[in-house]
Write a structure and sequence with these properties.
- This protein is α+β, with helices and mostly antiparallel strands.
- The chain has one domain: Peptide deformylase (Peptide Deformylase, Alpha-Beta Complex), CATH 3.90.45.
- 23% of the residues lie in helices and 30% in strands.
- The protein contains four helices and eight strands; from the N terminus they run αββαβββββααβ.
- β6 and β7 form a beta hairpin.
- Bound molecules: nickel (II) ion.
Length: 175
Amino acid sequence: MAVLEIIQPGNPVLRKKAIRVMSFDNKLQKLVDDMVETLLDAPGVGLAAPQVEVSQRLIVVRLPDDEESREEYGKEAGKLYVVANPEIVKSSKAMVEGTEACLSIPGFYGTVDRHESVTVKGLDREGKPIRIKAKGWLARVFQHEIDHLDGQLYIDIAKEIWRARPEDEEETIAE
Ligand code: NI
């Protein structure tokens, strides 16, 4: 496994519409392993393949596994989601405002409205169909990561963007 380089908006791959994953071969398994390692190393809560310069529809998501997260998110805390070709098939009317950051845009935060809950359909790393019902922070992370697959960044839709102060660092984990 290897920690991959996370690209920034100067790299056009981040703005491209990514193509669907067609083959769940060894090459894809290595990419998944490397993306998970990169996500944990960053550390972040979500990573999309275009962020490591691979223009494919693949995301990894994992909320932190600390005591506070376990209290708030229960079994979702620390659970690893690997989703190929993810699609939001259902989303709540209710929107919630929250703070986001992105591993591709270090040093900034923004306020973004997202659906409070979403249902995500896709394939797991073996190519088997999966369906995930996500709410709260998990739903936010899925929306952020799926946007990456269409070349969209949170700064495109943020109501407000600000530079991180040192004391912000522990508040939000980037996606
Ligand atoms: Ni991001």
